[in-house]
Design a protein that fits this description.
Layout (H helix, E strand, L loop, with lengths): L3 E5 L10 H11 L3 E7 L12 H17 L5 E9 L11 E5 L2 E4 L2 E4 L4 H11 L4 H12 L2 H5 L2
Length: about 150
């Protein structure tokens, strides 16, 4: 069995550890491959996603770690590409498409942060009908490959 993890986040977005700490932990656990998938830049959400500056630093750090640990573990530079992301995926080894927001009226709502946010969207745009919010989410999710390329 080959141990692999391709969905990881560093402290450059909503993770708690540096990329190097995570590489060292992966080696200690016997992983053969670790793939980093930082949250793509979205201009309206800087709490969980990488900033433009953090994205450049993320790419630099992961590429540096690829060389530093090449004899111990395979490291992949990935991105969790949200549908709302404004940059492409050309600079990455792989991408994970994601839908963290839905567009209601004239704003984006987070679908996976707090229940109150979804309830607010349901109340304001769907007369409180949470099923309609879910329907919009799944319609949006169905477009993830087309919109993100991932």
């Amino acid at each position: 069995m080959v141990l692999v993890d391709k969905h990881t986040h560093t402290n450059l977005c909503d993770g708690n550890n540096t990329a190097e700490e995570m590489v060292q932990a992966a080696i200690a656990k016997g992983l053969k491959i670790i793939g980093f998938s930082g949250h793509s830049y979205t201009a309206f959400d800087l709490d969980f996603c990488m900033t433009e500056e953090a994205t450049a630093e993320y790419i630099r750090q992961i590429n540096e770690l690829k060389e530093k640990y090449a004899d111990q573990i395979e490291i992949l530079l990935g991105i969790e590409q949200d549908q709302c992301a404004t940059y492409g995926i050309e600079d990455y080894d792989y991408a994970i498409g994601s839908t963290h927001y839905i567009w209601c009226g004239d704003e984006f709502f987070s679908v996976d942060y707090k229940a109150e946010i979804l309830q607010d969207a349901a109340d304001r745009y769907f007369d409180g009908d949470m099923y309609s919010v879910c329907e919009l989410y799944f319609q949006t999710e169905a477009e993830v490959i087309e919109k993100t390329g991932a």
